[in-house]
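Homework help board

Subject: predicted structure for assignment chain

Our instructor gave us this sequence and asked us to write out the predicted structure in token form, then describe one feature. I got the tokens but I'm not sure how to describe them. Can anyone check?
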Amino acid sequence: MSSDKITFIGKGITIACTDLARSVRFYETTLGAVREPGDGYGCPWFRLGPLVITLMPNAAKRTPAEFPAHAMPIVWLEVPDLEAAHQELIRSGVEIVQAPNGQSMMVADPDGLIIEVWQAESEPEIN
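My token output:
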């Protein structure tokens, strides 16, 4: 038995969904995720920046968890313009859970899973 500590490396997130087509539209069309090759055994894979998302169509019901009352994982995304993202999400019919406060906002995917959207910090100027 080895005494070395095992290192865990984050790979991505699997999202259990109730309606695969609806979730694909949301992540691909609304958020701009890019489909990865392969089908993941019937679970399509997407890349959203450095994050890999797998959609698993095996949930029977929308999540009963409510933000901020219940423990839950929250997907964290950044955008270059929070207000423009807010307006685009409204136009797309996305549920806004917490309106923008200048730094971030909370929205829900089609099954009620929370996505935290942050204003990306601008790159420091190099002189």
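Reply (TA_rk): Your tokens look well-formed. For the description, you could write something like this. The beta strands are 13-16, 34-35, 45-48, 51-56, 75-79, 95-98, 104-108, 114-119. That's the kind of observation they're looking for.
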